[in-house]
Amino acid sequence: MASPNSDKSRPLKTIPGSHGWPFFGAIKDRHDYFYLQGQDDFFRARINKHKSTVFRTNMPPGPFISSNPKVIAVLDAASFPILFDNSKIEKRNVLDGTFMPSTAFTGGHRVCAYLDTSEPNHAKLKAFFLSVLASKKDYFIPLFRASLSELFATIEDHVHDKTKKYSANFNALNDEMSFNFVFQLLCDRKPSDCGLGSTGQTRFNKWIFVQLHPLVSLGLSKFLMLLEDFLLHTVHLPWFIVKSDYKKLYDAFFSSAGSVLDEAHERFGIEREEACHNLVFLAGFNAYGGFKAWFPILIKWIASAGESLHRQLADEIRTVVKEEGGVTFTALEKMSLTKSVVYEALRIEPPVPYQYGKAREDLVVYSHDAGFEIKKGEMIFGYQPFATKDPKVFENPEEFVGHRFVGEGEKLLKYVFWSNNRETEDPTADNKQCPGRDLVVLLSRVMMVELFLRYDTLTVEVGKLPIGSSVKIKSLTTTKTTV
Ligand code: HEM
Known about the structure:
- One of its GO terms (biological process) is sterol metabolic process.
- This is Allene oxide synthase 3-like.
- The termini are far apart.
- A hairpin with a 4-residue loop joins strand 7 (about 365) and strand 8.
- The chain has one domain: CATH 1.10.630.10.
- About 45% of the residues are buried.
- By secondary structure, the chain is α+β, with helices and mostly antiparallel strands.
- It is about 45% helix and about 10% strand.
- The strands form three sheets. It has a five-stranded mixed beta sheet. It has a three-stranded mixed beta sheet with strand order 1-8-7, with no helix packed on it. A three-stranded antiparallel beta sheet has the order 5-11-10.
- The chain has 15 helices and eleven strands.
- The chain has helices at about 25-35, 40-50, 120-135, 135-160, 170-185, 200-210, 220-235, 245-255, 260-270, 270-305, 305-325, 330-335, 335-350, 385-390, 435-455; strands spanning about 10-15, 55-60, 70-75, 90, 170, 355-360, 365, 370-375, 380-385, 455-465, 470-475.
- It binds protoporphyrin IX containing FE (HEM).
- Protoporphyrin IX containing FE binds near residues 91 and 287.
């Protein structure tokens, strides 16, 4: 495939599509997106209509939350990476798309994820995060394995329990495990030791929902759709609903993450208070929010892949762990199928599916077929699942192919974009790639390892949630006993 956004041999075309009438066009697109077509069909219908993977549309929420919902959608593997080019794309206040929640949610600060690379505070905060993560590296595997031990023990109990209908709600148990893991990693203490009890994840859930409600639909009956649209998509829910939850979380981090905050102040010149609001956002929105969506997706795809793949994973994992004498970085690196399976899940269902950025200058974006002129200041929007399931790059793109990235397949990793950059690039203080990239990939591999060291296969029941999937574990089978 030609290198995206550089091949000038493709003809220049006018961007098809329109934003419709002011106000009404945005409302129509919002209704199509949430209620009449649904996400994937919304984009598919417009690709078919315009015969182009680059077109103009509005993105929800629109009036009255977004002052300007107009975007240019880029929906293939060639045009999507324009969003990673910081020299051409501004990422100021676009984390959630065409609106930004109040800074009251973060103590009055614009936290790192909302900052553009041209703002000096971005590099300072990002360097601080990268340094914190590097300093915690030795804890990643042992702490996560301990967290998973508790998680699987509880899952087994629930799968045995008649009162739980012999099934384990993976999402709820994963929320608790993920929150405890993130808190302990950053604060070196259990959340129960600092006044949070077991309420941390519920408080974060509320705080995240009140920021992201303009982007979700609860899937209510048709009768309640208009009411939902009015309540969730027309005005912001007030931040004070979660004021006390946020204060409790902030206080717990401020009193427990002393050494991390000292480092922010002494090494990076960031005030402790600003560093702590950034740390809470990193812990709650970026890390916990990411794991909350991602681990159920991972388990869903692994379980659905079937017993033959499970057998191969169990073989690989047990053999390598035996050879290496434990679950180490080196051992994980040797598990080529396990690695491929994690990348395949990140490709087929990227947990953060939307990316936005504004053109810093007039520019041309190239799809596989044509170039399109974009004016300075216009908003570019990428729906990532369409880029990472691009049939011009991936064979059988809608199919979960566990071995896809093994051997020669590794060459395709440059088309895996889940971390807001190619999987072959690294997060730095100067780009907008997720600094948790390596941690997420590592923990996902460790989750596979712990699963298949314990069990031969598993079955799940899957449903849809406003964000991500719901997963109930129905059975876990070992060679000798069926759990
Ligand atoms: C499965 C879990 C995760 C997913 C899917 C995820 C995904 C992403 C994505 C897509 C972005 C870019 C958003 C944008 O600008 O459009 C991002 C940014 C970010 N992520 Fe993650 N992330 C995850 C876990 C983590 C973890 C564990 C951490 C830290 C411990 C983290 C910290 C951040 C930060 C600080 C940013 C902003 C980067 C910047 O402004 O340069 N994330 N993440």
